[in-house]
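re: that chain from earlier
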Amino acid sequence: MDTGIGPGGVGALLVDNGSESTAAIRTVVQRHRAALAHVVETAAEQGGARRDLDVETFIDCIAGAYLSERAREGNVAPGWPQRIRTLLEPTTSAPHRPSRRSRRRAAIREQSAARDLQPAKDGGNAPRASNATAFERGDTTGEQRDRNRTEI
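^ sequence. v structure.
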């Protein structure tokens, strides 16, 4: 990745001496950031990144890691882009959307649960017979369990 910033450019930015060279460096950095921001925003629009991703901070993370790698090693080691991607991807990826099959199964489970909670057809308030546990039927005190024991 050629940033277009010559030797001492980063140092000039850190010192921020207000020179023309510092202004020129900032222009180059802003141009690169704008291009990268466009790529990230497009990915978010297409579902490849979170829509609420803070693009500027995301770019800061990549740029900061790049500059740190260059300062530490003198160059960017092979595999660096993949390491950064592996690190950042869990926090930047769009949420996983369950498959259509998984969503259909969940809907069936919800419908079944709702049916089990409907009042009995005879007008009483007793829950319908189901495979639900006593707790799911609302017997939180263990009264039904105690009644079953005395009937045996």
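The CA atoms of residues 14 and 132 lie 65 Å apart.
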